Amino acid sequence: MKFGILFSLFPVLAASTVNTGGIDYTNGVFIVNEDWYGHQNSTVNYLMPDDADGNYWHYRVIQNENPGIELGCTNQYGAIWDGKFYFIAKQAKDPGAAITGGRITVADAKTMKVLYQTPEIDPEGTQCDGRGFLGIDSHKGYISSSNGIWILDLDTFQVKGQVKGTANPNIGDDKLPNDPTGSLYHGQSGSMVYSAGKVFAAHQQYGMLVIDPVTDTVTKTISMDIVDEKAGIGSVILAKDGSVWASVAKTTQGNGATLPYIVRVEPATLSCDVISIPSGMYPPSNSWYAWTPDSFCASSVTNSLYWAGGSNAWFSNTKIFRYDIDLHKLEKIIDLDDDNENWKLYGCSMRLHPVTDEIYMSLYHEYGQQSYITRRYTANGEKIKDYPMIANYWFPSLPVFPETSESGIANIEELTPQITCHSNVLSLRGLQGQLLDIYNCAGVHILSQKIESDNETATLDLKGGLYIIRCGRITTKIALK
Q1: CA 430, CA 227: separation in Å to the nearest integer?
Q2: Cβ distance 462 to 445 under 8 Å?
Q3: Which element (helix H / strand E) includes 414?
Q4: N or C: lower Cβ tally within 10 Å for the chain?
């Protein structure tokens, strides 16, 4: 959550991909840490929650697997995509660190060996502090930042430009980087999700951006004035059923204040529903003031949303809520105040395991204390186990779950979505729940069809010619006879 300073150095490339530590990085939980601003760069800890010998923690795995290499400063985001671990930091180097890391760091997800690192996001060197990452397909990803969303070539790891319509409109205000009223903290781009062939991104000033990932252009903006004239967006998440959800900030000024609503967006039609949070409950907290991914998250097992919320805009970190989308039911499932142990959720550090649906969260006592634990709950809020940590100012940011064949993430060859066409019959693999859209070469939409299984065929009763097929994250051309 801390503020930082701009640094700039040359890119770093590391080629080794051999795991020398003997650690299995496919069965645990990564915790990406801001770490101690002003003293050291960010870190990543690895938790093996079911280790038979009780050796639960492996600390600072990036440094341990890559001697002489570290992450950047205030690294808030990490995501595993297509066998790679993408780390996005606010700056390249902490003022107190001896080593320059990067705003973008790419590592092999199974070995934690760093493959690429660069201190800049904008190739022209304009101030551009990192926020989040979203994989689009095996060749392209998006990086959100304090100044727009950027296109990352996943084959070369080079930034290829900015998504049109996402730039921070306040860039060039000439205010110092550490000025909280400057462009670094107003007009940022934040969390991003992908659904129905579109990217949905939170923009602090505009609201929810709808982006065409083929043309890398904003096609529509959903303003939060559908909730209140002055309202802004907090963050966006993707529910199990493919619907997109947004939390609501009271204003666009980044002071952490909320409004008692969440917003559902139907990704195919872009229709919106505003859901009121009943009295006695709290909406998701938000954190544009010093950006984090927020605690607002979704289950991959049930059609449910989770978040932390409370009466204080900046310290809503003891009460955890679950919203059942299908039943339209909101309930408080965890209240850390009931434990009388003075534990509090640190910032955004709460996510659900994609297979077990268990909740993992990082807890702390006070900012001035080095006492941290990671706690594991059932999806219903029943405590399973605490994992105490060695003393350090970890300032945890985000739990990230590694690739496993069980989770449907790691087995890339089997799960890579594919579209093939033979004799006017489409074969669709790995695209269950997505919408199949067909356009003619003039860009006219011909039809839509929901894919019901991971191995499905569709016979196209269309006249001969060239057509554009879009389904999930795939866009391709087919020629019909």
Answers
A1: 36
A2: no
A3: helix 412-415
A4: C
> What is the DSSP-derived secondary structure letter of residue 53?
T
Task: Read off the DSSP letter of residue 336.
Answer: G
Q: Which residue in 254, 258, 274 sits closest to 266, CA to CA?
A: 274
Do 379 and 369 form a contact (C-beta atoms < 8 A)? Answer: no
The rounded Cα 148 to chain-centroid distance in angstroms is 15
Q: Which of 170, 176, 206, 202 is nearest to 189 (CA)?
A: 202
pLDDT band at 180 (very low <50, low <70, confident <90, very high): low
- Angstrom distance (rounded) from CA 324 to CA 309: 16
What is the phi/psi pair of residue 413, to 5°?
Answer: -60, -45
Q: Where are the extended beta strands (E) located within 100-188? A: 104-108, 114-118, 130-135, 140-145, 148-153, 159-162
Tell me the per-residue pLDDT of 277-324, one tens digit each, with 9 for 90 and over.
Answer: 999 999 999 999 889 999 999 999 999 999 999 988 777 899 999 999
As a 3-state breakdown, the chain gives helix, strand, coil percent values, each rounded to 5, of 5, 45, 50
The CA distance from 326 to 302, in Å, is 9
pTM of the model: 0.84
3-state secondary structure of 417: coil
The span from the CA of 281 to the CA of 322, in Å, is 11
Nearest of 47, 20, 1 to residue 384 by alpha carbon: 47
Q: Report which residue type is found at 468.
A: I
Place of tokens 């395991």: 353
Which residues are 448's β-sheet partners?
437
Return the CA Rg of the chain. Answer: 22
For tokens 């059932």, the residue is 378
Closest CA to 34 of 400, 396, 392: 396
- Residue 207, SS3? strand
